């Protein structure tokens, strides 16, 4: 009698692996959903920048900071869980949410938050990828081992979100009477645009989003133009 | 201007592929993704797989505070894209070779055909070895979309194994075999002609070293393996994942169906009948196996599509078995079953 075609033990082996994979995905989805909620709250608080004068930033930024703290806690749990498995097997599940979290951190820092004893916060500060990694306490651009980390793409996409937010802030800061901030934002966005132009982009999501930076540049240029027409540019920043 | 209105104006655009292409279109690899750009005279702009062309001259960018950062990020992204492109190219080659193997093999190969299969396998072996450095550690899953060739290879190897043993190759055996192929490919690159190490026969897969499960165990052992490798100067290897196995076996069912069809037509017998287990039973066993398995999450659509195709293959082989039973020996050799006819008593969609 010929042996069976399929080894009887194989079924249980494969079934167990598939079920294990399903269970991992379910657990991941739970943690990611929680991170999503943390991020949504923090993003909500950040919308107040469009209606808050700079003098009132300290209170606002500390509220943002409490939102960010929650994001960091959840990210740590995500990192611990996800690091047990190949990074690129599941990373697409949290990519978008993590990006948004990074964006809140970048924006918070740019507005003067994220200060420490050695390096006080100041308006206009762009955190590097490495600094973002330190904030989240995770590695960045990890190559020599397989664990949870922040990728270059996530950082750049987050940065583009920040650019979009800031271009909107440029307009609103004029309304709030803070023309200096508008001019500073304009310079920052134009510098970043130059940086993005240096990348050799392929036809992927990054290229699509980088295109939106062009529109942000146009918006802030319009704002600065309006200001200069009416001689509203603060003297020391006149270019 | 009279009289000119009668003539259609001559088309200004050059026809594709006409006058003065700098190179004829190369369709030999059957590569459907081999499009290359042409300029408006119809001449190819081809870089001949050489080094990355210089980035198109951009408007001079004034350096600012963030320029160094973006330069660094650019270099990292470039390296990633280059790696992905390299892998994709080799993957297409391996896919083509695997397909050729599938088309060539059958039970009881004459020696010259066997030699052809062996040389294709040796070629695949070398190609795998070239890929291995780019898919170590974290990169193995990073580039899985560029490694579709492994599904094709899984299909070819499981099919060869089936023809030889009438059993289903196991995932551990498959990955051990592919790892061995990679190792031999690296070794044969170093030695010019190594006649002492014969290529493993596609049908003879070595027993796995240990029943190692992929994913987490592998990751923890990566560091260990790297140390061993460096101390023995073992070549870098790569292998198949469980997903490669699944999708390879889905496609295997299609090959088994095609094999059942042609072998029945040629021999007038259901394949495998002498050994008491026919290919009809094997297809049934394989089909039920996959129907019973839970669906793989994160991949539902693909899984369902493949499962559906497998079902149809099972149906077709069932039909063959039925026809064989009904008609028995009254059918002359060379008779081809009519697979377009409806199943008896079946009102399919």
From TrEMBL, chain A:
GO biological process, alphabetically ordered: RNA metabolic process
Keywords recorded for this protein, A-Z: Cytoplasm, DNA-binding, Nucleus, RNA-binding
Entry's localization field: Cytoplasm; Nucleus
GO molecular function, one term: single-stranded DNA binding
InterPro entries linked to this entry: Translin (IPR033956), Translin_C (IPR016069), Translin_fam (IPR002848), Translin_N (IPR016068), Translin_sf (IPR036081)
Major localization listed first in the record, in broad terms: cytoplasm
CDD domains listed in its UniProt record: Translin
Gene Ontology CC, one term: cytoplasm
UniProt record similarity statement: Belongs to the translin family.
Name of the protein described by the UniProt record: Translin
TrEMBL record, chain B:
InterPro entries: Translin_C (IPR016069), Translin_fam (IPR002848), Translin_N (IPR016068), Translin_sf (IPR036081)
Main location: cytoplasm
Polar residues composition bias: residue spans: 19-34
A GO term for molecular function: sequence-specific DNA binding
Assigned keywords, A-Z: Cytoplasm, Nucleus
Subcellular location(s) of the protein: Cytoplasm; Nucleus
Pfam families in alphabetical order: Translin (PF01997)
GO cellular component, as recorded: cytoplasm; nucleus
Region Disordered, residue ranges: 1-57, 184-237, 330-349
Compositionally biased tracts (Basic and acidic residues): 1-10, 184-198, 218-232
Keyword Cell membrane among UniProt keywords: no
Family in the record: Belongs to the translin family.
UniProt protein name: Translin
Lineage: Eukaryota, Fungi, Dikarya, Ascomycota, Pezizomycotina
